[in-house]
Specification:
Phosphatase 2c, domain 1; six-stranded antiparallel β-sheet; 14 strands; 22% helix
Length: 335
């Protein structure tokens, strides 16, 4: 795809330009906005009465309605990667965050990077923690792709950067409430998928219909009390019956201690999709085969919307984040 206008400031650019002369943005990179693809009333009016006296505190001065948060429903379509993050039906706010981007270089096939973080609800400023983590980690991964860096090394660096920025949000005068979140990432090249994880958000490989690719499967392992017990040989039934079986055993935050992410690279060998999601989706549909059967063959925003709608229909008890990347990330397959 030839870039004719800067994605940052819309200034015209030439076919050989690598950076915009107006704002300095790389023309090889397209990504979600820092701070998240938040939505707002386009005209600044009240979502309830339509009045134009919405105060800085987010309440309408005419009818008193609290305005919908821009994070309640976030959507972004970058063609080769799409995502939706929804507050769900029972949570007061959306503490999930997502960030992703694409790197194109001349005639070379594109590479996609994506990060999803789920803010730990019992911690302070969980939404801030998850957003800072996805933004910073995505920057690290995109920079590594531009420099032809090793995806596994870049994934570890991205997690380290996420730990640094989230830990920096902690208030030492308020112990026990350090902002924290889970973490999953994917670097999707034309031949391989590199995944990193901390916590219980997940990455799935979903094989395409009739494909000779690797069968659909979960690419991450949950960092929970139950998962740790199962890994040690305890039966699944026994592990899930222990006290706080689904409590996190690893997370990102100032109170998490030393963290080493799980990093794995797979070569699917055929077409399909990489799905990054928070537990607001997979708690309802945990099996890779079931997710594959439920997902529309065309993928893209239609598939992300359908999976999100399913989680909402089944109860929507938690925030729901769904990010989809076609494999291989070939032009036109993500639209």
């Amino acid at each position: 795809m030839t870039v004719t206008n800067c994605p940052g400031c819309d200034a015209p650019v030439g076919p050989e330009d690598r950076f915009c002369e107006g704002c300095g943005q790389s023309l090889l990179v397209r990504r979600t906005p820092v701070g998240g693809p938040v939505s707002k009333q386009a005209d600044g009016t009240c979502a309830g009465c339509g009045g134009d006296h919405v105060g800085a505190d987010g309440f309408c001065e005419d009818c008193g309605l609290a305005q919908p948060s821009g994070r309640d429903r976030m959507e972004c379509d970058l063609d080769l990667v799409v995502g939706i993050s929804d507050k769900g039906k029972r949570r007061a706010r959306n503490e999930d965050s997502m960030a992703y981007g694409t790197v194109r270089g001349g005639d070379a096939p594109p590479t996609v990077v994506a990060v999803v973080c789920d803010g730990v609800a019992t911690s302070d400023r969980a939404d801030n923690a998850s957003q800072r983590a996805v933004d910073e980690a995505t920057t690290v991964l995109l920079d590594a792709v531009l420099e032809n860096g090793d995806p596994e090394a870049a994934t570890k660096e991205a997690v380290a950067r996420a730990i640094e920025v989230v830990s920096g949000l902690a208030d030492p005068s308020v112990p026990g409430t350090a902002p924290s979140c889970t973490f999953v990432s994917a670097v999707v090249t034309p031949t391989a998928v590199t995944v990193g994880s901390v916590g219980d958000s997940r990455v799935y490989w979903l094989a395409g219909p009739g494909s000779d690719a690797m069968p659909s499967r979960l690419l991450t392992r949950d960092d929970t009390v139950a998962a740790e017990l199962i890994a040690e040989g305890v039966s699944e039934e026994q592990a899930n019956s222990v006290y706080q079986a689904h409590a996190l055993s690893k997370w990102i935050g100032a109170d998490a201690g030393p963290i080493e992410p799980r990093v794995v690279t797979v070569e699917p060998g055929g077409p399909g999709h990489v799905l990054l999601c928070s537990d607001g989706l997979w708690n309802y549909v945990p099996q890779a085969r079931s997710l594959t059967e439920l997902m529309p063959a065309e993928g893209g925003m239609t598939a992300a919307a359908d999976l999100t709608a399913l989680a909402l229909k089944l109860g929507g008890h938690d925030n729901i984040t769904t990010v989809l990347v076609p494999f291989p990330p070939t032009e036109g397959e993500g639209s």
